[in-house]
Amino acid sequence: MKSAHRRVAVAALAATCVLSGCAKSEEEPATTGAGAAPAASQVVQSAAPGAATCTIDQHGGEKIDLKTAKVGFSQSEKEANPFRIAETQSIKDEAAKLGITQLTTANANSQFNKQISDVEQMIDAGVQLLIIAPLNSDGWDSVFAKASAKKIPIVTIDRKINAAACKDYLTFIGSDFAEQGKRAADEMAKALGNKGEVAILLGAPGNNVTTLRTSGFKDQMAKIAPDIKITFEQTGNFSREEGQKVAEQLLQSKPNINGIYGENDEMALGAVTALKGAGKKPGDVKIVSIDGTKGAVQGIVDGWISAVIESNPRFGPLAFSTAGDFFGGKPVGQDIIIADRSYDESNAKSDLASAY
Amino acid sequence: MTTLTLTTPRRADWLPKYGVYLAIAALIVYNAAFTPYFLTVSNLRIQLIQVAPIIIVALGMALVIGTEGIDLSVGAVMALVAALIPLYLGYGVIAAVIVSLLAGVAVGLINGALVAKVGLQPIVATLALFVGGRGLAVVISDGQLKDIRNADLIYLGSGDLLGIPVLVWTAALAILVVAFTVRRTVFGRRLLAIGGNRPAAELAGLPVQRVLITVYVLCAVLAAIAGLLSVGRIQSSDASSIGLLIELSAITAVVVGGTPLTGGRVRVLGTVAGAVLMQLVIATMIKNNLPPSTTEMVQAAIILVAVYAARERKTR
Amino acid sequence: MTLLEVAGVSKVFPGVRALDDVSFALRPGEVHALVGENGAGKSTLIKVLTGVYRPDAGELRYQGEPVSFATPMDAQRAGISTIYQEVNLIPLMSVAQNLFLGREPRTTLGLVDRARMDREARDILAGYGVTTDVRARLGSLPLGAQQMVALACAVMIDAKVVVMDEPTSSLEPREVETLFGVIQDLHERGIGIIYVSHRMDELYRICDTVTILRDGKLVHTGRLADLERVRLVALMLGREVSDVRREGFTVFSGDHAAADDTPVLRVSGLSSRNRLHDISFGVRPGEVVGLGGLLGAGRSETIKAIAGAYPVDRGEIEVDGAPLRHPTTVKAVAAGIAVQPEDRKAEGIIPGLSIRENIALSILPRMSTFGLVSDAKIDEVVDRFMKRLRIKAAGPHQRVGDLSGGNQQKVLLARLLATGPKVLLLDEPTRGIDVGAKAEVQALIDELAAEGLGVVLVSSDAEELVEGSGRVVVLRDGAVVGVLTGDDVTTESLLATIAEAGA
Predict the structure, then answer these.
(1) Does residue B196 belong to the interface with chain C, where contact is any CB pair within 8 Å?
(2) Which helix (H) or strand (E) holds B221?
(3) Span A6-15, pLDDT tens digits
(4) Residue A35 — very low, low, confident or very high, per pLDDT cuts 50/70/90?
(5) Within this chain, do residues C300 and C393 fall inside the same structural domain, yes or no?
């Protein structure tokens, strides 16, 4: 077993190397159109008149100063994709900006049980405001019971919970996924000149984001450009690798495809790699996707992607200003839908720095 | 003396041996008839590129299964490799390759030691790194997807050598090496003996621990190679998603290829065919735009048939 | 009236005619011996009788009616029970659970009545001379006791026919007596017994009738008392009576008093946990030393400890003058120790591999250059040993699992011999193999000793132990309690020493 020991030693050396930081990564290329442009924070879509609002009297609880409040933030998924990273960072940054010192954060790593217990622990620890990015839309009853007993307002972000606003939770702040799909259809129709064959790279099956981004896209496409045929729909599970694999198969068996709609940027970037591998040139196949990550916006700059609809993850400012209004006694909307921006070749270069 | 005309043919013995090739042939015939552009070089190329990493991982898995073991940590190895590569790519592609292989060796040594020396059941021993390995990878990579721009690494994953993708060359080489190892080397024969009857192999004076550790190291190194090439192919490193569930694809390929989970036998070509079959199923479904649930049901049916066939052989 | 009978039954496997027009009849209360060399068709006939195989031709009648059992379960439900050579119970379940498997006593709530099950199991097993904690895992019991549990299981389900395949092969003398008592009891209750054994003494003691098979054909059936022993053996082997007379029943030459050499194996003060205490003995080149004692006396543990497969706390082992420190199986084989374990299937052969791979297993490094195996070298060795040990098989590539017990044992011995050992440790080398192979193995042991190997022989067959060994070391409870030498090596003095020691 001597040789085995030696091998262990070598491996240990390598490990030390990682820890001691003798690592050396690739040098970052100069970003095109750089400049420290401020990250774009969210803007509320103009609320429809008469939309339901909520006040502290309706919800219950005491007026407090947000600065000194204990705040808990529960993230649903591992911070492994740009959206989640930006989302968590935005909450932390905004809290720091406002001078909130008592912010606790937890990550459920995609385990719903863990998210429930994360939140319950925060309640037990005496938080006065909860911001939750829910993993699931159902199964929150026990949390609501605990929170309403202590009159703790809950702001849910990016995904909605199936429950009563202003009662079980205070408000929902998020994007309209179906609207994102519609706008993607508009961009696609524009890029193709209202005719051609389009393929959809679907998100994870059974996810409401997938469902809404699909229905929004299809409905709008049928309405505005009936000559565009959607001839292919396969899941890429929101992952770059699977997006690439599916796109490779697609390009091989349907060489006449004109457009690819990626339900997130990762799959669209996978499709770009597939297009490169198939010997296509930028613009041969039009790509439209949703999210607005740096990689995808760079893809527009490079000519591979026609347009990207943003799904803004920077919930921090809006979440805290909503909570501030609420604690200050002002009415807040029960459904705050944010206005997502979009990128195309006209603004990609200049706005690249504000992509996440 | 009475003359007998009755015989009992060996039922279903052909199924685990040749079933997988038959299924491949059937799928090719179906696609040739119904799928446009199927019998083209470009299609062959894409299927080979997509299946190559699975084949590389499945070969290592087949060796482990040959010892009556299982390795759940192959996906985690790929993740670790994906996390480490961007850290060292600054030194060039050689450094990335070396670091990847070292990571494979390290994981293999841990798995092997847990199985051979501590005596844990393989499924439990490798579960540790299945869970922990990817977690560590996500920590190392800071949870972030990193784009790869190193031309040499991209060449390994996406480039051609003599008109054939490097990825496919690598898989072919791995097939040859593993087949040769199983058939011709002392190590290969010992591996099969240990899988066939470990107590007997021990009493026969075989270095059982050393062989087992080597098997797990080989498996992890093959997974590391698959991880390295995948990073080059996807042209980005994402520790949280690379190689996700590949252990299941690999085990499926091995089982469908006719290697029994009870050890003592390794079908190298069968394993390759198993991986190719599953790839063809996926390709057929995607190309004909069938819903993913159909793909999963067809895959499940194939696995059931394979397991059933293996059972037939055992009871004979 | 016959209880169970077949007429003109045939069964063909690819390449083998396992049964060829065989007829067999069992009457109630009869103890019917079924004998023949391995491969004669005994197992196939039993499997036809118990519903495992369907005959290709011929008829099966049970209690006068033509029947066809679809599965062994059907046969069992009809009252035909089988105790196989290898105990087929569930080692991880308790003794009581095994005994009541599938027919557990229930409480009024429909739950298993554990207390009652344990109580009844204790009572039933006491009738078989087994006093043990019935809540213990079956696997923790000695093989002999497991066999008794299997027998109790078989008899419990209202059997009318009980098939016993080598039931005494793993029993010690006292247990054999208990078994014979049980058989006598079954006989009186009118239950028919088919008794398969290679031990002549047993057959003549308890069987009424005998059926002899050879090469799948019926060669004789009739009252056993009317058949002379030599005649029986001659019929089985297909040889002339005069040959058998000349060769005798066991083929040991009996003379293993070795030259006064330094021992090739020296064991001193060997101790292990609570199982082995201060065991010392030596084996000189050309000597066969027997290890005697009852089951559980520590014979197998001693052998395994020497082979590096059982932990050693204290003591020294020397092979040819060189000490073997902290023995491992790898070191032991390298030092020239070759061990044939008691349980051939579990620890000996590798059933899924070919004869060739099994024989070459321990010598692969010698058969290779730079880790690459040379098939030519292996073929040469395999060919030599297959010839020398007269291994009967379709060829060197046949799976060992498909061979008869005797040939499996020969393959295993070939593996040991291929290593060119100095010391052979043999644990029950002739268990569960047919008369012909048994004689060959015994002759081989003689021959090897004559060539200068040191042999340690463990056997539960007192006759074999005494005739095969030049010296017998008697163990009890993991300690040496006596050594028989010279004229003292007799069955009587062996049993006396064991009995004395046991007192």
Answers:
(1) yes
(2) helix B208-234
(3) 555 455 545 5
(4) very low
(5) no
